[in-house]
Amino acid sequence: MANINGRILVTGGAGFIGSALVWALNKRGLADIVIADILGHDEKWRNLAPLNFGDYVEAGVFRKRIQEQPAFFGKFSTVFHLGACSATTERDASYLVDNNYNVTKELAGWALAQQARFIYASSAATYGDGAQGMDDKRDDVSALRPLNMYGYSKHMFDLYAQRHGLLNRIVGVKYFNVFGPNEDHKGDMRSLVNKAYQQILSTGQVELFKSHRPEYKDGEQMRDFLYVKDAVEMTIHFAETSTTGGGLYNLGSGEANTWLTLTNAIFSALGREPKIQFIDMPEALRGKYQYHTCADISKLRTSGYINPITPLSESVRDYVQNHLMTGKKLGE
């Protein structure tokens, strides 16, 4: 395993996974980091406050600068491109194409031109309903059919990278259901752990969607839940190892758990008896809902990632007791 040398760019570095990534880099003693993001009007800036980094640039400014003067910001050894619109309910397809596809194309070309390692966030949403499998070892991703425009905007760049022979030189990481500290600003896109914690405090119970497929009982829809502290270790692995040239990689826990298992772990972390109410799923979501996701992470393991994955109950307990109950961001 090699160390990361040189300057690092983290796009989306004030966001959920991005700020956790900067925190993990800081833990390695790395602070020569430039963060590009859009701080806007939410409380995302709070994620930055405990972190060490060299510079912050608004994403729009960064994009314009490298279009006009590619050498303006100097050389980078590693580019982690995590900046994107991650709202699965976003309806503005033109915005998603520009933000999630065009920007990624531009950054990949720019990074490769200066021989920087380019690691970008694809998404498990590219797999759609899973009918084509969730296999990151396939050579051709064109058969995948995402269920929403967010997933398709991510899929578009995977297809572009495949068409242009870039996947042997860059790494695309497909995050499954990531949860953990620093996601407070995400509104409706927060994880169930975050939402359920707030629900329990205010009402004493948690609301879960009913199942609208007979083969799944209410609350037994399944997801691969991954703690953000594991997710960023997996991501940094691809900057620290020279054994992988590139490719698409699933980042998950490797096991599927039900929403009930997750919810029970939250109540347990709070020392409360579970109290769950099932509610109808909104009509608009029913045709786009994934009932079962599970990451095959054998390709990640083959690439040399040997760290154990935090068990779900343990990661939920850490998040609830050390972050949600204390209000502490990563690094505080």
Question: What do you see in this structure?
Answer:
The chain is globular. It is an alpha/beta fold. 36% of the residues lie in helices and 15% in strands. The protein starts with 7 loop residues before the first strand and ends in an 8-residue tail after the last helix. The longest helix has 21 residues, at 93-113. Strands 3-2-1-4-5-6-11 form a seven-stranded parallel sheet, with helices on both faces. A two-stranded parallel ribbon has the order 7-10. Strands 8-13 form a two-stranded parallel sheet. Strand 4 (78-81), helix 4 (93-113) and strand 5 form a beta-alpha-beta unit. It has a domain at 8-179 and 225-252 and 294-307: NAD(P)-binding Rossmann-like Domain (Rossmann fold, 3-Layer(aba) Sandwich), CATH 3.40.50.720. Helix 6 (192-203) packs across helix 8 (259-270).
Q: How are the SSEs placed, and which strands pair?
A:
Layout: E1 8-11, H1 16-27, E2 33-37, H2 45-48, E3 55-58, H3 59-68, E4 78-81, H4 93-113, E5 117-121, H5 149-163, E6 171-175, E7 177-179, H6 192-203, E8 206-209, E9 222-223, E10 225-227, H7 228-240, E11 247-251, E12 257-258, H8 259-270, E13 276-279, H9 283-286, H10 298-302, H11 312-324
